[in-house]
Specification:
Elements lengths: L12 E8 L2 E8 L7 E6 L10 H9 L2 E6 L18 H14 L4 E6 L1 H12 L4 E7 L8 H16 L2 H14 L8 H13 L2 H13 L4 H5 L5 E6 L7 H11 L2 E5 L6 H4 L1 H15 L1
Parallel strand pairs: 3-4, 3-5, 5-6, 6-7, 7-8
Antiparallel strand pairs: 1-2, 2-4
Helix pairs in contact: 1-11, 2-3, 4-7
GO molecular function: hydrolase activity
Pfam families: Abhydrolase_6
Organism: Streptomyces cinnamoneus (Streptoverticillium cinnamoneum)
């Protein structure tokens, strides 16, 4: 899961609930000092939240963009029903279209990891509210075989254990892999709180989609929209060569963020923000 570099919102950003025709969604909304050059909607991935983008809010606002990071339905501070069908890909895509409409349309859409799957689905449903599409740390279809195994284990655990028990099992696995040793206390507390606030049915439904998502690259290539594929130099969810191949098939602008893994916005926010602002300028 993404670990935000800070939990403090910059002065240019506000936290509130964005009303849409499909309900209210918790957002962080960063605005530039002057008239915005454009508006961007940032969509987090599996087990993530709007906080994953905190590090890029200020540099993107400084570059002149209004940037709105959102919690999807059932994710962290956006409520959602205890029903897996509510988190079908098509339902989540309609949520993004409603959010784009609430922001006035003409939105630069960015989806991170699973957020990229939803962003792609939204664009394939109706591209008209969007000025561009950025797929961040996202590949052609389902996640890598190794991650599919881990995700299926998580789904099975969520079906029989409560959220706290599943969290403790995940932490035990991370400790065995030395993956959690440098997490500051405040961040560790936030990650636990975010997990506990997320609806388990959202996690199960999204996990199933990550393990079964078809390759829709050819469909997306036919959409007349500026496209950007951005990733770290390494990625555990989708192999970087697969991400490269997808970018080529999409005739997309390609950015590889050096020193970053699966979460460039959290791991290398300044470099990631610079790349996003450059692409949005090119996209118009």
């Amino acid at each position: 899961m993404s670990k935000p570099p800070t939990l403090t919102l910059p002065a240019c950003a506000d936290a509130y609930r964005l009303p849409t025709e499909r309900g209210d969604f918790a957002v962080h909304d960063a605005r530039p000092a002057g008239v915005p050059r454009g508006t961007a909607l940032l969509v987090p991935g599996f087990t993530g939240s709007k906080e994953d983008f905190i590090g890029v809010l200020e540099p993107l606002a400084t570059a002149g963009y209004r940037v709105v990071a959102v919690d999807g339905r059932g994710q962290h501070e956006s409520s959602g029903p205890r029903d897996e069908s509510a988190y079908a890909r098509g339902e989540l895509a309609l949520d993004l279209l409603a959010q784009a409409a609430a922001l006035g349309g003409g939105v630069h859409l960015l989806g991170h990891s699973f957020g990229g799957i939803v962003a792609r689905a939204a664009v394939l449903t109706d591209a008209s509210p969007f000025r561009s599409l950025t797929l961040m740390s996202n590949g052609k279809g389902a996640i890598s075989p190794m991650q599919q195994v881990r995700t299926r284990r998580l789904i099975q655990a969520l079906a029989v254990l409560d959220m706290d028990a599943v969290w403790q099992e995940m932490r035990k696995e991370d400790a065995e892999n030395a993956a959690d040793e440098d997490t500051p206390t405040a961040l560790a507390e936030f990650l636990y709180s975010r997990w506990m606030k997320t609806t388990p049915e959202q996690l199960m439904a999204v996990g199933r989609q990550l393990t079964t998502e078809p390759d829709r690259t050819a469909e997306l290539a036919r959409v007349r929209l500026p496209k950007h594929v951005l990733s770290g130099a390494l990625d555990y969810a989708w192999p970087v060569p697969e991400i490269d191949a997808m970018a080529k098939e999409l005739s997309a602008h390609r950015t590889v963020v050096p020193g970053a893994g699966h979460s460039p916005a959290a791991e290398r926010p300044a470099v990631t923000a610079e790349a996003l602002a450059l692409f949005w300028e090119l996209a118009g």
